[in-house]
Design a protein that fits this description.
Blueprint lengths: L4 E11 L4 H4 L5 H5 L6 E12 L4 E5 L6 H9 L6 E6 L3 E4 L12 H11 L4 H15 L14 H14 L4 E4 L8 H16 L3 E5 L3 H7 L2 E6 L2 E6 L1 H16 L3 E4 L2 E6 L2 E6 L2 E2 L6 E7 L2 E4 L4 E8 L2 E7 L5 E10 L2 E10 L3 E2 L2 E9 L2 E6 L2 E4 L11 E4 L7 E6 L8 E7 L4 E7 L6 E9 L6 E2 L2 E11 L7 H6 L3 E4 L2 E5 L4 E5 L2 E2 L6 E7 L2 E4 L4 E2 L3 E3 L2 E7 L5 E10 L2 E10 L3 E3 L1 E8 L5 E4 L3 E3 L11 E2 L6 E2 L1 E6 L2 E8 L6 E7 L7 E8 L5 E3 L2 E13 L8
Helix pairs in contact: 4-5, 4-6, 5-6
Length: 695
């Protein structure tokens, strides 16, 4: 196939400028009179390159490497000093801000001028004029002189003209870095459309993720020389390692795993295969309506070793430094994140983003799993696949069978309680998956005082056998107790019998009434699971009141033992508290130490929970029965405080039965002194399990 762009041994040199010396006559003609030799700067050295019709080529490299000069030669704006540049077809180019515009003409007049220079007749421009103006979004200013336009408006109109003149070759420099985020997304989507239409695209950018997605081949320039020309993944990997080495940014490894940090972006490799996408692992912070990326920070390696490093990144537009510790430990890649605030700073959101290739096709999130949706050209923004509501700190992704990529298991440890995980698909142009550990701060918690603030830690396992992945993500919160299984989920326990769910709505939970406010256990901030003999232990912190709950859940025969400790930091007054088991309405009888009865029928007007008991003496057990259902019981032991066992109907809308171990306040409020004390101790299970029929 004949190349549409062909460069043969292209070299470009420029006369060296020496600033004020030229103005004083001590350069240029003055040097010639004195017989001094002219100094020249070589921007490109002997570049040979062919680009096929319909190919997308990316050009990357550091500032001053010759990228823009090469693009100018392809566009015909600059002639090579030596060598040959052949270009066939109509070329639309975006080289620098305002290039090709007459500042005294209006936007409308410049559209016709630029399109005419690209070879379009007036009638052809008429046919696409509305599309150009509509895409640019500056119709209200189209009859104003261009010299009154902002830089963002320049980019909007220039890109719109270039994209709609039906070019054979589309050239774009880093000019797309200017402008608002919404228009940048539109531009990227439009470039993707041009690629789908078979246009030839040559793109210069420092956005490695976009270049990786858009381009089939990437050229790396360094000091005017072509030092690498290969597939996007291989060229970007080579570039990151070279830049890291030159800038002192760190590369480290352990066994078959390797990681590279460069300018606030982390790339991770397993057996020479990149497990991260080109965008790598990075951070974003939101403050006062603006987003700030870790890749914009000024980074230093504070301490580096063969298996890890400590890094500091000073944010350019925020009064803080990001403090990262990266290491391999026990077969895991571990990313620990904190920040040092130099003066009071308001942050609405902090997120760690882990970009992964689209070759990862299946996600696992606790006991839930599924396939990632296909990413289509219509996806111009991220689409959330699994949201934060579950608050699960362990998740995983799997590639297709036979793929060289390893299964990945992620563990989140929160130093700040607001962080949680979610999975998303990126836009079509980025074409990948992203795991986000995100904290959205309410207005009352957005101010960060001066000092060091630990945030979170993410551990990634890359050596877990595929058949073990699901066990790693689910076993830490699920206890199998014969035919009964119990799973802890964010302050509540879901009970299942032979795989069918027994509990409903709030499931097994605890709550305290303080200052007329119910403080449910599912609203506490729960930490990681701690394994104990026969079960698990978890701790949930209250944000509103000075207490925490520690739950120990252990296996029994077709039952779970639950022990809840209340850890009080300051004296606490409580009106009442209880531990409850919420069941479906198929349960229609209840029994306590003192009485037994049917649950009453529901009234559609019922808006509050209704107690069914007539006697409220202290008790130790309560059960519920239903036809063809296993009988469920709630029982306290000798370590528990004195409680009243009660049966309730919820409101009509919630439509459930409740077994409750209630501790009311009596004539005065309950007072808890600072320290730990027993909140509840007992068992929840199925009676006469041998006789209970499976659902």
């Amino acid at each position: 196939m004949t190349a549409i762009i062909q460069l043969e041994q292209v070299t470009k040199t420029f006369p060296a400028r020496r600033g004020s010396r030229d103005l004083r006559g001590r350069g240029g003609f003055g040097d010639w009179l004195r017989g001094r030799r002219e100094e020249r700067f070589t921007a490109l050295h002997d570049i040979s390159l062919d680009v096929a019709p319909g190919e997308s080529l990316g050009i990357i490299g550091r500032n001053g490497s010759g990228k823009s000069t090469l693009l100018s030669i392809i566009a015909g704006v600059t002639l090579p000093t030596s060598g040959v540049a052949r270009v066939c077809g109509r070329v639309a180019s975006l080289l620098e801000l305002g290039a090709g515009f007459n500042p005294v003409l209006t936007g409308r007049e410049n559209i016709y001028l630029n399109a005419g220079l690209l070879g379009m007749r007036h009638a052809q421009v008429d046919a696409v004029y509305d599309d150009i103006v509509g895409f640019s979004g500056i119709g209200a200013f189209i009859d104003q002189p261009v010299e009154t336009y902002s830089s963002g408006m320049y980019v909007r109109i220039a890109f719109s003209v270039a994209a709609f003149v039906n070019p054979d070759i589309f050239l774009a420099d880093e000019v797309l870095a200017v402008g608002d985020a919404e228009f940048q997304r539109k531009c990227r989507a439009k470039i993707g459309e041009l690629r789908e239409q078979g246009k030839t695209i040559v793109f210069v950018s420092h956005d490695l993720g976009f270049v990786n997605t858009l381009c089939e081949r990437i050229v790396l320039l360094d000091r005017g020389r072509m030092v690498q020309r290969d597939t996007p993944q291989k060229t970007i990997t080579w570039y990151l390692r070279q830049v890291g080495r030159d800038k002192g940014v760190h590369t480290f490894a352990a066994g078959e795993d390797e990681a590279v940090h460069c300018d606030g972006r982390i790339s991770v490799f397993h057996r020479q295969e990149e497990a991260s996408a080109a965008d790598g692992f990075r951070m974003e912070l939101a403050s006062l309506g603006q987003r700030h990326a870790s890749t914009d920070a000024d980074w230093d390696v504070i301490e580096g070793g063969p298996d890890g490093c400590r890094l500091e990144g000073r944010m350019m537009r925020l009064p803080l430094r990001l403090l990262w510790r990266l290491r391999f430990d026990g077969g895991r890649f571990i990313w620990t994140i904190a920040m040092e605030v130099e003066r009071d700073c308001a942050l609405a959101e902090i997120t760690a983003q882990l970009f992964l290739p689209a070759a990862y096709t299946r996600w696992i999130y606790g006991d839930v799993s599924g396939d990632f949706p296909q990413i289509t050209p219509a996806d111009t923004e991220w689409n959330v696949v699994v949201a934060q509501e579950m608050k699960t700190p362990v998740t995983a992704v799997l590639p297709d069978d036979g793929d060289a990529l390893p299964p990945l298991v992620f563990h989140l440890r929160r130093e700040n309680p607001f962080f949680s995980l979610f999975w998303a698909n990126t836009s079509y142009m980025s074409h990948g998956r992203v795991l986000c550990a995100t904290a959205h701060f309410p207005e009352t918690d957005r101010s960060f005082a001066r000092g060091v603030h630990p945030l979170l830690e993410i551990a990634m396992e890359m050596n877990v056998p595929r058949e073990e992945v699901e066990k790693r993500t689910s076993l830490d919160r699920t206890l199998n107790c014969g035919r009964l299984s119990a799973r802890f989920e964010r302050g509540r326990i879901r009970l299942s019998w032979d795989g069918a769910e027994l509990t409903t709505y709030l499931h097994v939970y605890a709550t305290m009434l303080i200052d007329q406010l119910w403080n449910d256990s599912q609203h506490l901030f729960w930490g990681d699971v701690e394994a104990i003999p026969g079960g698990i232990r978890l701790r949930g912190e209250s944000r509103r009141f000075p207490f925490a709950q520690e739950w120990e859940i252990t296996r029994r025969d077709n039952a779970v033992a639950l022990r809840i400790m209340l850890d009080v930091r300051e004296e606490l007054e409580v009106e009442e508290y209880h531990t409850s088991v919420v069941l479906p309405t198929r349960y229609h009888r209840w029994k306590t130490d003192h009485e037994a009865a049917e649950f009453p029928e529901y009234d559609a007007a019922l808006a509050n929970w209704i107690h069914c008991n007539r006697r409220y003496d202290a008790g130790t057990f309560i059960t519920a029965q239903g036809d063809s259902l296993p009988a469920v019981y709630l029982r306290t032991d000798e370590a528990a405080p004195t409680v009243r066992m009660t049966a309730l109907n919820t409101s009509f809308a919630e439509h459930a039965r409740v077994l409750q171990a209630l501790c009311p306040s009596g004539p005065g409020r309950l007072r808890f002194a600072p320290g730990k004390q027993v909140y509840f101790s007992g068992t929840i299970g199925v009676e006469n399990a041998a006789a209970a029929a499976p659902e």
